[in-house]
Amino acid sequence: MKAMPSLKNLYYLVNLYQQQNFNRAAKVCFVSQSTLSSGIQNLEEQLGHQLIERDHKSFMFTAIGEEVVQRARKVLTDVDDMVELVKNQGEPMTGEIRLGCIPTIAPFLLSRVVKQCQKAYPDLSLLLKEDTTERLLQALGKGELDLLILALPVDVSGYHSMKVGIDPFKMVVHKDLVSNMPEPLDYQAMPDESIFLLQAEHCITGHAVSACQLEDTAKVNPFAATSLHTLVQMVNSKLGTTFLPQMAIDAGILHDTELEVVTPPGDAPYRDIGLVWRQTTSRILTFRTLGQEIQSLLEQAK
Predict the structure, then answer these.
(1) Omega before 184 cis (within 30°)?
(2) Partners of residue 79 on adjacent β-strands
């Protein structure tokens, strides 16, 4: 049987690629810099190809080195899934789940999810990460996360997904400006630059524009907020109006403000809340069970 690369050396290589620095990668791997360097050199000898071009000050990955990194990530992820499969055989709701969630959901849902899991599944540990949809999907693909809570629709081709609930959008406006709103409410009759939204990387912006049929971009203010809380403060200062997800309103984001909720016209705009995981995972039962718990939590909030 031919000599196979060690998982440890593949782990060193992947972390060096992620950190782009030998010292930082060694710290992540909890080894000395010389140990990490020797492990990667040993990997190059086993494979018979140079993976990294080095000089005394810098380094860069070769083309084949980058390809090996991508394949190594998949190998390490598959091994992790195999270990979890054996560890949790017959006990799906045990172990760790590295759970990612977007910022427009995390503050309003995750605490309830964690409390419910602590109560129902004390042997299950949720390790949480909040980030944008794009970055979370990248981390899922790299095996850095196991499961995501996202607002759908987004492109999740190559992954499995499970819808767990619907989150309606509501328009909010300062109480002193309610009388100035056109009746019946018509977006096209709104003043230019009067609607505030989040920055483009937050998927809720696309969802709001699509769901509320904001076809005239002149109505949208060029200022883009970084969070829903920032949007609330701007609208509370009588600068305009915005759209908020119902779960944020239910969680009290409008407390201590003078904002009123206005139901948008036409078909009720909404976003779907869903779970996303890799197709190769061995923990489908775990994720679907967790999805049912989240579905129950969202239904209770109605």
Answers:
(1) yes
(2) none
pLDDT tens digits along 92-129: 788 889 999 999 899 999 999 999 999 999 989 999 99
- Residue 291 structure tokens: 């999805």
Q: How far apart are alpha carbons 271 and 239 in whole angstroms?
A: 25
Site of tokens 């969070």: 227
Q: How far is Cα 5 from Cα 79, in angstroms, rounded to an integer?
A: 14
Secondary structure E strands in the chain: 52-54, 59-61, 95-101, 124-130, 147-152, 159-174, 195-198, 220-225, 241-245, 259-262, 270-278
C-alpha–C-alpha distance, residues 109 and 40, integer Å? 42
> What global pTM score does this model have?
0.73
Residues 168 and 262: their CA atoms lie apart, in Å, by 12
Cβ neighbours of 240 (radius 10 Å): 21
Supply 149's token pair. 């809570």
Q: What does the alpha-carbon distance between residue 292 and residue 281 come to, in Å, rounded to a whole number?
A: 18
Looking at this protein, which amino acid is placed at residue 17? Y
Residue 19: both structure tokens together: 């950190």
How distant, in Å, are the alpha carbons of 65, 75, 91, 294 from that of 40? 11, 16, 37, 43
For the chain, the C-alpha Rg in angstroms (whole number) is 24
